[in-house]
Amino acid sequence: PTRADINYFGAGPALLPTEVLEDAAKALVNYNDTGLGIAEHSHRSEIATTIINEAKADLASYLDIPDNYEILFMQGGGSGEFSATAYNLVGAWVARKHKELGSEDSSAEKLKSAVKNLKLDYIITGGWSKKAAAEAERLFGSEHVNIVADSRKSNDGKFGTIPEESTWNLSKDAAMVYYCDNETVDGVEFPQFPKSLEPKGDDGPIVVADMSSNILSRKIPIQNFSAIFFGAQKNLGSTGITVVIIKKSLLPQPSVALMKQLGLPIPPRILEYEAIAKSNSLYNTLSIFDVYIAGRVLKKLLQQYPDKVQGQQAVSESKAQLIYSALEAHPSVYKIVPDKTVRSRMNICFRIQGSDAAEQNFLKQAATLGLTGLKGHRDVGGIRASNYNSVSVDGAKKLASFIGTFASQGGN
Ligand code: PLP
């Protein structure tokens, strides 16, 4: 098959726009008539700096990111950020406490006792937030990790809901409250920013979100977040860079000596946001090719949607609606996995009531129509249609239509 024959619903990496790839293929051989390919130019060259700065400016424009935030291009993926967020926000918390308490000798003891109560808060709504919390426990010890809520507790041990905010057990002065805005494996998405995390004056809460699988698909209230991160490979570009959007005031880290005195770990330099920010994301060799691809995708989005991310949001919602409606039309055949109130617009997870064999059959028949990448995550099985930005309205219509046909032919 050719690209044109395929509608791909894989969970990531996702498809990239064909014209971006065609231009990139040329750029890999000879970038802008320089005789060198884009992956061969030095990351310290003016060419690289221009690509980085334009991608930052276009991302800021598309998502309406204010000036008091820094945009970082990193490596290590979403998984690297599970560690980086914990390290850096603990550092920022210590820096803040240190400033509040002053640097007299007597404050050292006070700081030590404050550290005993150090908490990292996690809201667990799926496999990825669960992994992030486990990483924080590994780095800081479970005594410093507070599970604010775990949706499995009120749902028979399964993900698929978001616990009522009134039941959340938030710490008083957490170094951060962490959540995953869209759980890729479980198909659970926060419908909007949680009310109980809204800013209360200058005192936080410090909110960190993993937006790996739904960034660039809806408007987000950036000012409510201390940090947002996402791998490029689903809605932004090619696999290889990770983006962090962080409030500048949270960048400064305490001295290594102070952290050691307090018995707290310091991040490897490569995960330290302050170091990455100071070098404009060039602390070490960055994949400029991936930033170039991300930049091209952003330029395309900005051209396509005069009202920026809100334009994409409307399209994302209508594509998701098409697919969910087709599933809902046949309740005896399909079971949508998550609760209706928290269904993801990006990862549509469902089961076929009949059997595993019926699911296999669904996947096989879909593939013959060029509808591919629909197999659910290996941890949960079932079927998952990932509805990222690169899925066309036409592709969503084709899938919706096949969902209907499969059901009307017996659903097995
Ligand atoms: N967070 C979410 C929501 C994801 O979907 C993924 C990967 O699919 C990750 C984190 C991990 O990202 P990476 O594979 O880039 O480490």
From TrEMBL:
<dbReference type="InterPro" id="IPR015422">
    <property type="entry name" value="PyrdxlP-dep_Trfase_small"/>
</dbReference>
<dbReference type="InterPro" id="IPR022278">
    <property type="entry name" value="Pser_aminoTfrase"/>
</dbReference>
<feature type="domain" description="Aminotransferase class V">
    <location>
        <begin position="7"/>
        <end position="92"/>
    </location>
</feature>
<keyword id="KW-0032">Aminotransferase</keyword>
<dbReference type="InterPro" id="IPR000192">
    <property type="entry name" value="Aminotrans_V_dom"/>
</dbReference>
<keyword id="KW-0663">Pyridoxal phosphate</keyword>
<feature type="domain" description="Aminotransferase class V">
    <location>
        <begin position="160"/>
        <end position="378"/>
    </location>
</feature>
<dbReference type="GO" id="GO:0030170">
    <property type="term" value="F:pyridoxal phosphate binding"/>
</dbReference>
<dbReference type="GO" id="GO:0006564">
    <property type="term" value="P:L-serine biosynthetic process"/>
</dbReference>
<dbReference type="InterPro" id="IPR015424">
    <property type="entry name" value="PyrdxlP-dep_Trfase"/>
</dbReference>
<keyword id="KW-0718">Serine biosynthesis</keyword>
<dbReference type="Pfam" id="PF00266">
    <property type="entry name" value="Aminotran_5"/>
</dbReference>
<comment type="similarity">
    <text>Belongs to the class-V pyridoxal-phosphate-dependent aminotransferase family. SerC subfamily.</text>
</comment>
<dbReference type="GO" id="GO:0004648">
    <property type="term" value="F:O-phospho-L-serine:2-oxoglutarate aminotransferase activity"/>
</dbReference>
<keyword id="KW-0028">Amino-acid biosynthesis</keyword>
<keyword id="KW-0808">Transferase</keyword>
<dbReference type="InterPro" id="IPR015421">
    <property type="entry name" value="PyrdxlP-dep_Trfase_major"/>
</dbReference>
<protein>
    <recommendedName>
        <fullName>phosphoserine transaminase</fullName>
        <ecNumber>2.6.1.52</ecNumber>
    </recommendedName>
</protein>
<dbReference type="GO" id="GO:0005737">
    <property type="term" value="C:cytoplasm"/>
</dbReference>
<comment type="pathway">
    <text>Amino-acid biosynthesis; L-serine biosynthesis; L-serine from 3-phospho-D-glycerate: step 2/3.</text>
</comment>
